[in-house]
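Progress narrative, Year 2. Work on DUF2254 domain-containing protein from Aequorivita ciconiae advanced from sequence curation to structure prediction during this period.
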Amino acid sequence: MKRFFIRIFDFFNTVESKIAFYPSLMAISGFLFALLMMYLEEQGMSRKVMDVLPRLMVENGDTALTILSACLGGLISLMVFSFSMVMLLLSQASNNYSPRLLPGLISDKRHQLILGLFMASIIYIIFTLFSIEPSDEKYAIPGVSVLMGILFTISCLVSFIYFIHNISQSIQINNILDKIFIEAKNRLELLIRTEKETVQAFPNTNTWHSYKLERGGYFQNISVDNILDICDKHATRIYITIPKGLYAPSNAIFLKSEKKLDKKAVDQVVANISFARGELVKDNYLLAFKQITEIAVKAMSPGINDPGTAINAIDYLTELFSCRMQKRDHVTYTSNDNFEMRIATITFRELIYNVMASLRTYCKHDPIMVQKILWMLNYLKVQPTMEESYQFDIEEEIDTMMKQARESLESERDISAIKGIGYN
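Result:
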């Protein structure tokens, strides 16, 4: 039962990030609400409201058709314009910053809810128009349904104003960086809180039994408790060979077990791991480092030439690295019967090298950027860490950055300026 709920949660988490998810749900809600209003109108709801609030009721069938038709045409135009704005936002973000940003922007619930409100209102008004006859008498017109259509239209106009404001904010690089940073930091803090298990040494797995995946995908989530139960049941230790968040190719070795497992047991382990064809920062904090690094690198390219954006990106990388230093490279999970499981991870050394390799390549010729990167590394060097090796990894990156900067910079003044920062 637990595995079933995990599957449902992973499926919902994946589908929720699609741009059509909330609009589809709200469109169905608009259709159902239209049917409900038709039923209530058959029960004489408009007649009762007409006697109490006659000024709010439309008393002529032609007038009702005209009002709803105008509302329908205006809403369709607004929806088309809104979708065009979303597509423009995605195109601009992809061209100016990074294509990796698109899943995060598409999954913005505010945009989805506004588009869903437009679709729900349009469908509601269409079905309300079916119930109006031009020759209807005063008490035969579905006045409450018409009034609800007008209120929906007003709500869409108000939400459209908010949509324009929000989409103008969403394209600003500071807001994009801030959103990525917050999601990654929340994910890191969650991992730090949940990884407080044993950190004992794990045995060498070279001689263990290996098992391959039948279908590839991005390794997103895993049910640790369920797999530990499998370890107890089969009296074995398990090692997941691919780090969480990375792509696991089909027919690649993904699982190792100290004792041989039958196909049913392997399938049970894989069933407790979710794979996807895309990546989201809230599921994989490593993606945030990739995205922010790509933004900085693209900002320093000759076509963009925006060092201010690159400096902002390095500021966010500094905070993320500081948070990552509070997480261990390896954590071993222990079952009730003292059987262990470990998941491969991207070490801090690998992570900082991948980020710095890109930054050095595109920023080593700019003295201001070199100073900013060295400031980041020196700041990280004095931060508290979970493992002492992190300090040596940072010092190695400082030495490499200094060496490449001296080779790239031609001015002695620039070289002397970075020397004081590099060896603080």
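Strands lie at 209-212, 217-222, 238-240, 247-248, 253-257, 273-276, 332-334, 340-343. Residues 61-96 form the longest helix (36 residues).
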